[in-house]
Amino acid sequence: MKKITFLLFFVFNLFYSNSQNITTLNYDTFKQKVWDYKKNTEWKFKGQKPTIIFFYADWVNVNNDLETNLKKIQQEYGEKLNIYKVNYDKIPNIVNKLKIRVFPTLLFISSDGNYKHVTNYRNKEQIENLILNILKVEK
Question: For residues 73 and 139, which has the higher predicted lDDT (pLDDT)?
Fold first, then answer.
């Protein structure tokens, strides 16, 4: 009985912790999940559902607060949208291709592939309003 309880606890925690995490994208995962910029020089979104990409740089101080808010939003919205993060210092070519010059930047991508840049810090309520107005996603 203890083994079953432990196993259930482990599986639940694994699922729950993954559902609130924001996936960090590298070159390969960006090409798989968002845009294969080597195959398509023009923007072509590969995703199936609304997505937010958090572009940040380690040297910008507001990143931790913004990331905390995005984690809460990911938990609340669940499978209705994807939230990813990209570190400028790790993959600057992608950031440059998307003409991102200010950090942090949130890229809101609708399921049809249209996107909008939103720069600078936004609190949780502001992000939720952007999700509703740009992505048309409700909780």
Answer: 73
